[in-house]
Amino acid sequence: MRRIPLPALFVTTALALTLGACSGGSGGTGGPGGAGAEEPPARISVNLTGTKAAPGTPVVVKASEGQTLKQVTVTDSRGGTLAGKLAADGASWTSERPAAPGTAYSVTARIGEKGSATATFGTAPADKVNKLSLAPGKDTTVGIGQPLSIVFDHPVKNRAEVERHLKVTTSNGTVGSWGWMQDWSGKDRIDWRPKEYWKPGTKVTLDADLNGIDSGAGGWFVRDYTTGFTIGKSQVVKIDLDAHRLRLLRDGRQVADVPMSAGTPGGEKASWRGKTVLMAKEGTINMRSETVGLGDAYDKMVDYSMRLTWSGMYAHAAPWNAAYFGNANKSSGCIGMSDANARSVYDQVQVGDPFEITGSDAKGTQALNNGYGEWNLSWAEWQTKSALR
Q: What's the predicted TM-score (pTM) here?
């Protein structure tokens, strides 16, 4: 019988597959050769090969011509699995997420009814790794003004790509949007703010599926992040700089109204106006004027300190300023109260409560990145801060 040579393309493809992946054979009959002929060995090809494949690319697995993929599993060396989808014709499978840097992967494919094939590959390690910090803390309860905030260790050039992998889920379908800025520290930052203040009891979850995403100049992300928090009581602190009063409202009802003295108007000692958010309850701390550019004006241990901005604006006890409570603004920029009133407010407020500061005795509106200043933007203005708009 005369031997008929196989087409050159088939020979080349089979050779490439043999070099690029280990394959397992399958038994059975009824293959292309007709009744009683053996099925061809199950073979696959993978777009990523070797031990230093480029990360950041989805894994694509293909079956040999004439064969059909039934199931594909891609696992990494740490036991994680890459989810993916089969093409409608079963000729290929593509992972939903890219391969991460510095990771070894194993591929197992089921072909036809009985056949199977395997392959392995590894990706090159990241030359630079980007990490992030999350606020608020995991499993915390915060006020209705608290944004979800992410600060990156290194610059993020691929902002749109990173933002696509940040998924916020809420228990009640809260509408919100991401917004990019430069943090007070100088690092890149992105916050998620609701359209309006949160509803009490809302549960919020962030899934940052960033493993394998290239941030650009700042390097690769090599892990995923997740956090979650709950919205507590509906509380708003209203500060009137001109009337020298601080009022605490809970569920719209006033529960405290205390006299105070804010920053001295007409210069750098004036307070900021606008909507800010209580960043932290810091208790008793040392406040020194040199740290905020005011020379040697003061160096005091201050009780019931509630931080409102990164630039050093607090609400706190200021018994040394008692003569001005309720009638004049004579502080170095903070909201000062008596010991008793400061303690009462401190005990009732929660991190994330909005502080709405109004009045003409101010040096301007708090900047976007000076703490949490996003509530000073309209919803339309805030949406423009997203890289996906």
A: 0.85
